[in-house]
């Protein structure tokens, strides 16, 4: 995880704006083609807010495939919160990831679940004041 794949927001974003913002971090890192962002948005439009996996936490993604250049992860923390019309709203921690195949896709979801096992992780994320703080909280001494 690169610090350049982290963004901190303190504004009201729609769920679509948030998914595009976190996807753009992957795009800027050269990990995906723009179509991958469209696929993440379409997945939420088609299947609903299934990406809101826990109170305050969502994981945006799309199917692995030709829209992915390399495996990567990005993260935004939004202090105002994002509404996905989910029981887990507001979302403050939004990850996005991309993988090249189904095996890595499942491993990545498993790795993220372990990373997010701290019941206070959202509160800790909201206390972060910088990308550096967020990086230390989520990724320092971790392999993701």
Structure in words:
By secondary structure, this protein is of the alpha/beta class. The chain has one domain (3-136): Mannitol-specific EII, Chain A, CATH 3.40.930. Helix content is 40%, strand content 21%. It has 5 helices and 5 strands, in the order βααββββααα. The protein has helices at residues 15-28, 34-47, 102-115, 121-127, 131-138, and strands spanning 6-9, 52-54, 57-60, 72-82, 91-98. It has a 5-stranded mixed β-sheet with strand order 1-4-5-3-2, with helices on both faces. A hairpin with a 2-residue loop joins β2 and β3 (57-60). α1 (15-28) packs antiparallel against α2. The longest helix is centred in the N-terminal third of the chain and has 14 residues, at 15-28.
CATH overall fold name: Mannitol-specific EII, Chain A
CATH class label? Alpha Beta
The helix tally amounts to 5
Going by CATH, the architecture would be 3-Layer(aba) Sandwich
Strand order of the largest sheet: 1-4-5-3-2
Q: Low-confidence runs (pLDDT<50, min 5 residues)?
A: none
Average pLDDT works out at 90
Shape: globular
| Quaternary state of the chains | single chain
Overall tally of domains: 1
Order of helices and strands: EHHEEEEHHH
CATH homologous superfamily grouping:
Mannitol-specific EII, Chain A
Report the span from N to C terminus: 6 Å
């Amino acid at each position: 995880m690169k610090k350049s794949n982290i963004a901190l927001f303190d504004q009201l974003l729609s769920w679509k704006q948030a998914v595009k913002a976190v996807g753009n971090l992957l795009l800027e890192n050269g990990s995906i083609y723009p179509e991958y962002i469209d696929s993440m948005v379409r997945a939420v439009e088609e299947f609903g807010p299934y990406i809101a996996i826990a109170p305050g936490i969502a994981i945006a993604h799309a199917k692995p495939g030709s829209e992915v250049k390399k495996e990567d992860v990005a993260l935004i923390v939004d202090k105002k919160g994002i509404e996905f019309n989910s029981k887990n709203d507001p979302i403050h921690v939004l990850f996005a990831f991309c993988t090249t195949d189904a095996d890595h896709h499942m491993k990545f979801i498993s790795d993220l679940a372990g990373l997010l096992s701290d019941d206070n992780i959202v509160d800790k994320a909201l206390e972060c004041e910088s990308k550096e703080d967020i990086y230390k909280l989520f990724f320092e001494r971790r392999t993701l």
